[in-house]
Design brief:
globular; 29% helix; 16 strands; 12 helices; five-stranded mixed β-sheet; six-stranded mixed β-sheet; 455 residues
Length: 455
């Protein structure tokens, strides 16, 4: 049998991802060789393990590249903002998403469809959306709010008390809010928010802050006078559910350019402006973990707690639930645990027709080195194979793997002959499993003859 030749991993040309140290691993006696870390939270939704907390998402992905964003290719960093528009308006340092009017209209249509499913008539829906998506004048709101804040601060300082949070201009004038904000029980969009927070006791729609004055320029006066946000930034209350976005819209102005024999010719000038509105349909980015990744974080590292219907699940229960949801889970997790312990970063290999892909350090730094096929066999390498290959299918898979600069690796999990099915019902069976790796290479007769002639 020819000895396998291990080739060095192929590094990616451009790397934009910082590398953080992986999670610390607990020893067998319970001591921790690394620093302490918080236990992240996840929940099972439709046989998928989902992490919703942004801090947990960042920690799990950055320390070992566990999971992927449901709206992103890898790192959960999806944003509603249009990168082209953000780069276009970056000189004004807005801290809100910038989108096109077409994209914003799609969110309005999605919100309309959601309310139609709840049984509301079109007249009510249009009235709600018209009030909810009305433009907000940030400059006037900023000036009136800051004026109110100054008056309130002077009054409170005269009384010897601390100033309270100021409210928006609509509340200072005695006007009552209408529409979605006035009655949260009437709001058909509140129930669609996975973060259920109470908005009945909020005193302010948004906090405004007057930033430092920027020097005005002729270019800004001619192109962006209609924005009125160059000196203002808006921060939402952390307890408030609504998301504010800036929409780039076109404003057409018709003005006379020249007069001849009493006839005036007009010139059409299109000027772009940013309008602040509330987003009627919020999209949330979550981190989705594969079943193998989730169980490794719970069983091997102890840094994840998984809930189902708000009830935490034990390790044995997770082993049972994941085995029912994915018939080959036990075998794939054994292989995942083995390669993770060796320092590899395993990922699902579905797109290349295999069980796992092995990365050095992580997908942002290196291309996958191996495509792994996992098989659970007995001591004589016999047993019911999950994927019985013919020579034709095996040659095709090997050619596909070679075309993407990877090697095909067979991972045989050897089960002792005296191991019973009852032992397989607990993850403790991993301690008795042995692993045999086999790299499959294509034999080329012409290359073999040329090497023999050289010798």
């Amino acid at each position: 049998m020819a000895e396998a030749v291990f080739h060095p991993p192929k590094r990616k040309r451009r790397v934009y991802e910082p590398y953080d140290s992986p999670f610390p691993i607990y020893s067998c006696d319970g001591s921790n060789y690394g620093r302490d870390f918080k236990i992240c939270q996840a929940e099972i939704i439709n046989n998928n393990v989902i992490v919703k907390n942004p801090e947990d998402m960042e920690q799990l992905y950055s320390k070992g590249f566990f999971g992927k964003g449901i709206l992103s290719r890898s790192r959960p960093e999806y944003s509603i903002s249009d990168p082209v528009l953000v780069a276009k308006w970056q000189e004004f340092n807005f801290n809100m998403p910038v989108v096109s009017s077409k994209k914003y209209q799609r969110h309005v249509e999605w919100a309309k469809s959601l309310m139609q499913e709840q049984g509301l008539d079109d007249c009510t829906i249009n009235a709600i959306l018209l009030d909810f998506t009305k433009p907000l004048n940030l400059r006037e709101e900023t000036e009136q709010s800051c004026e109110f804040q100054n008056e309130g601060t002077l009054k409170m300082e005269a009384d010897g008390n601390e100033p309270e949070d100021f409210v928006t201009s609509s509340e200072t004038s005695g006007e009552k809010e209408h529409g979605l904000e006035s009655d949260p029980h009437y709001d058909p969009l509140v129930n669609s928010n996975p973060y259920k927070s109470d908005i009945t006791n909020l005193k302010s729609v948004a906090r405004t802050h007057l930033a430092e004055q920027h020097s005005s320029s002729a270019h800004y006066q001619s192109q962006h006078d209609s924005c009125n946000e160059e000196n203002s930034h808006i921060w939402l209350n952390k307890d408030y559910d609504h998301e504010y976005v800036l929409i780039q819209e076109e404003e057409s102005n018709v003005y006379p350019t020249e007069a001849a024999t009493g006839n005036e010719k007009s010139h059409l000038n299109k000027k772009e402006k940013l309008v602040c509105r509330r987003n009627p349909f919020k999209i949330f980015e979550y981190l989705q973990l594969s079943l193998e990744e989730a169980f490794f974080l719970v069983y091997a590292l102890g840094c994840l707690s998984i809930h189902y219907n708000e009830v935490p699940l034990s390790i044995v229960k997770l082993w049972e639930v994941f085995s029912d949801a994915q018939p080959n889970f036990k075998a794939t997790y054994m292989a995942y645990h083995y390669f993770r312990s060796k320092g590899w970063v395993p990922k699902v290999g579905l797109k290349y027709g295999t069980d796992l892909l092995l990365y050095r350090k992580g997908p942002p730094f290196y291309h996958a080195s191996y495509s792994v096929i996992v098989e659970l066999v007995n001591g004589d390498f016999e047993g019911p194979l999950r994927r019985p290959f013919s020579w034709k299918s095996l040659a095709g898979l090997n050619r596909t793997t070679a075309n993407v600069s990877k090697e095909l690796l067979f991972c045989y999990l050897i089960k002792p002959s005296d191991m019973t099915e009852k032992e397989m019902l607990s993850p403790e069976c991993l301690k008795r499993i042995k692993v045999q790796e086999l790299i499959l290479n294509r034999w080329v007769s012409s290359s073999e003859r040329s090497e023999q002639e050289e010798l």
